[in-house]
Write a structure and sequence with these properties.
The protein is α/β, with parallel strands linked by helices and 461 residues long. 41% of the residues lie in helices and 16% in strands. It has 17 helices and 15 strands. Helix 3 crosses helix 4, helix 8 crosses helix 9 (248-260) and helix 13 (345-358) runs parallel beside helix 15. It folds into 2 domains: 2-152, Cobalamin-binding domain (Rossmann fold); 182-426, Alpha-Beta Barrel (TIM Barrel). The strands form 3 sheets. It has a 7-stranded mixed β-sheet, sandwiched between helices. A 6-stranded parallel β-sheet has the order 8-11-12-13-14-15. The chain has a two-stranded antiparallel ribbon with strand order 9-10.
């Protein structure tokens, strides 16, 4: 059996490409079950929908599996439709946040199987269906078509012991094509040390990994880093947990073992940490272990807005955390969200002022988007304020059509405030001089100006 796993085309804003860990874990499951696997990574390979279709057809797979988030729904369905016209015997299975929520949406459009939620165990049993002819009826977490009817089997329990997962199948990915202007080194791979988040942020979807925190053992995490270094000669890595410091003592133990085993690689935490759990000891251990950049979800400079999105942090906790980052000397990216449900023009201005006050090394301002399955989406749906089901509009980086009726702000005003945020933060003479003084090579200079051009060309035009 031949399977092609596909990461569909998605708009790239900043020139930073990151391989998807979820697809790599599924690839390993297939390999363990004797399946011939290929991976089509449209973003890394620079493929649009037509190019992705051509690559898939050239592989002649029996099954195509696509990992789908909300902004990639339309492009993914175009891929399915186009391939079915050429080879109707190819079967399609999809997974990810959007198919988990709306399996019937895909089953009605030429998709044969929908894997809901965490996919590894479900995919393993699908392999047994094809290899050993076990019944689909007993495969939890699976939706499929049978005699023209849509069957939704019961949901699957979350994997309790993440150490039982195989290492991700990065050997199938074009890892050298995942380039970023924001890394110190060229070849980097992500590491997942935990799944699930116990926080209650209204803008987050937890339908895949749940709200129960599950962590790999410290030894397993570092074993995987060593494996990536030895097998793929990575030059740096990123730990991409939703909340690496949820258990600060465990995070510190990971750092200690990285040091003890002399990994000696630079690394980052791009997915975010909790401001309320930041301590000087934690940051010092990060730095000693080689971590040079961390992202932190700050979201707003107004406490009432933070409370309304159930972020669970205070402005003073953020200020304290930022002071510690500067004291220890780790690069900080502040993530801010513009246009939340209770926002006014005044609260957004307070967020911009707060970002400038904190002055992290970088700031990212994104539009609040009510992704299906989040508390934000459910509230707006209940109030009949969702105004589009065109999933192309559900992209927080791009200037797109509005997705919901905001009580206080027009979509144009939110876009204007995002532009204002970037201009006010990045066009400060003090900020520009600071970054010019940190340039140590022609590569640093090239990356700086390349990112300025790409970022502002898309967000400010």
């Amino acid at each position: 059996m031949k399977v092609a796993l596909v990461y569909p085309p998605i708009p790239i804003v900043t020139g930073s490409l990151t391989p998807t860990s979820g697809l790599a874990y599924l690839a390993s499951v297939l390999l363990q079950n004797g399946v011939q696997v290929s991976v089509v990574s449209s973003d890394a390979e620079g493929l649009d929908v037509d190019g992705t279709v051509s690559r898939i057809l050239a592989l002649s797979p029996d099954i195509v599996g696509i990992s789908i988030s909300t902004p990639t729904v339309n492009s993914s369905l175009k891929i399915v439709e186009s391939i079915k016209k050429h080879k109707n015997n190819i079967k399609f299975m999809v997974g990810g946040p959007h198919p988990t929520l709306f399996p019937a949406e895909f089953l009605s459009k030429n998709v044969d199987f929908v894997i809901r939620g965490e996919g590894e165990k479900t995919l393993e049993e699908i392999c047994r269906h094809f290899n050993e002819n076990i019944s689909l009826d007993g495969i939890r977490g699976l939706s499929y078509k049978k005699n023209g009817q849509y069957i939704h089997n019961p949901s699957r329990e979350l994997i309790k012991d993440l150490d039982t997962l195989p290492y991700p199948g990065w050997e199938l990915f074009p890892i050298e094509q995942y380039k970023s202007d924001f890394r110190k080194k060229k070849l980097s791979l992500p590491v997942v040390s935990s799944r699930g988040c116990v926080q209650r942020c209204t803008f987050c979807y937890k339908g895949i990994f749940g709200d129960t925190y599950r962590a790999k053992s410290v030894k397993r995490v570092v074993d995987e880093i060593v494996y990536l270094k030895d097998k793929f000669n990575i030059e740096e890595f990123a730990i991409v947990d939703d909340n690496f410091n949820l258990r600060p003592e465990r995070a510190i133990e990971v750092c200690k073992l990285i040091i003890a085993r002399k990994i000696n690689l630079p690394w980052t935490l791009p997915a975010g940490i909790r401001a309320s759990a930041v301590t000087e000891e934690f940051l010092e251990k990060l730095k000693d272990a080689g971590c040079y950049r961390v992202a932190m979800g700050i979201e707003s400079g107004n406490q009432q807005i933070l409370n309304s999105v159930k972020k669970g942090i205070t402005l003073e906790q953020v200020r304290r955390a930022v002071r510690l980052f500067k004291k220890v000397g780790i690069n900080l990216v502040g993530d801010f969200m513009i246009g939340n449900l209770e926002e006014t023009e005044e609260t957004i201005s307070q967020t911009i002022d707060f970002a400038i006050e904190l002055s992290p090394d970088y700031a990212q301002f994104t539009k609040a988007i009510p992704y299906p399955g989040t508390a934000m989406y459910n509230q707006l749906k209940k109030e009949d304020r969702i105004i589009t089901n065109n999933w192309d509009d559900y992209d927080y980086f791009l200037k797109s059509n509005p997705t919901f009726v905001h009580k206080n702000l027009s979509s144009e005003k939110i876009d204007d405030k995002i532009r204002e945020a970037y201009k006010r933060f990045y066009y400060r003479p003090k900020y520009i001089l600071k970054h010019l003084s940190e340039i140590n090579s022609s590569r640093d200079m090239l990356n700086l100006f390349r990112n300025i051009f790409k970022f502002f060309n898309i967000l400010l035009k």
